[in-house]
Amino acid sequence: MDKLPKIGRYEFMAEPFHCDFSNHLFMGYLGNHMLNAADFHSNERGYGMNYLNTINKTWVLSRLAIEMEDMPKAYDKFYVETWVDNAMKYFTSRNFKVVSESGHIYGYGKSVWALIDTGSREPSDIFAIREGLINEYIEKDYICPISKSSRVKITDKASLIRFIDTYYSDVDVNGHINSVKYIEHIFDLWDLDWYRQHTIKRLEIAYVAESHQGDRLHFYREQRDSDLDFNVRITKSNELCEETETCRCRVLFV
């Protein structure tokens, strides 16, 4: 079989009911498209979840940064390009580029993924998968110009904004709360009037621990150095009301 290109390119459309009141694609749906592109790309090249699940392994998202200049409008067709630019024993970094049919660049994404054992939930050796097949598809020269995720530092002064319970529709194929569901809940910390005046410029999120259906999620928010820049912490609580951190996030508006 011929070797596939290192960079994958996948077509999507901004479906109207995936768009917000401004007629632009919700950031959460863009995140889903990026994760789908990553899944398509890795499956086609032989180290995706279709194969991994047969050996009790899976990919889980560890970090994600998305930085956009603008967003596709309803009915716009666009492409998500994706490629792996580095692989280590337990983690790999994957980039994204979001581009229109005419070549207009909407924005970029950077992500870090961990390979884990589905039974133990412990990290697994990426290079043990098909004799290090992923190394054949590392692309270092295609540029993704945005910064990597920073280490978000949030203080004890962050305010509890709300808590939510988790249900069936929050859970993904890995059996834990879906990565993008956290993002959607985070964006709901600001109301519609805020979004009438501001748009999301950059999102950074780091996933610290898994949460599952039935966990209660608590959302803490604090302002950074400007009134358009925020940190968010998400914790989960158990029956004893003990809280454990699950995510840290930064949201920058313009």
TrEMBL record:
CDD domains: 4HBT
Key words of the record: Fatty acid biosynthesis, Fatty acid metabolism, Hydrolase, Lipid biosynthesis, Lipid metabolism, Transit peptide
Family matches, as Gene3D superfamilies: Hotdog Thioesterase (3.10.129.10)
UniProt GO MF annotations: acyl carrier activity; fatty acyl-[ACP] hydrolase activity
All residue ranges annotated as the Acyl-ACP thioesterase N-terminal hotdog domain in the record: 18-126
SUPFAM superfamilies given in the database record: Thioesterase/thiol ester dehydrase-isomerase
Family to which the UniProt record says this protein belongs: Belongs to the acyl-ACP thioesterase family.
Cross-referenced PANTHER family: OLEOYL-ACYL CARRIER PROTEIN THIOESTERASE 1, CHLOROPLASTIC
Name of the protein this chain belongs to: Acyl-ACP thioesterase
Species of provenance: Prevotella veroralis F0319
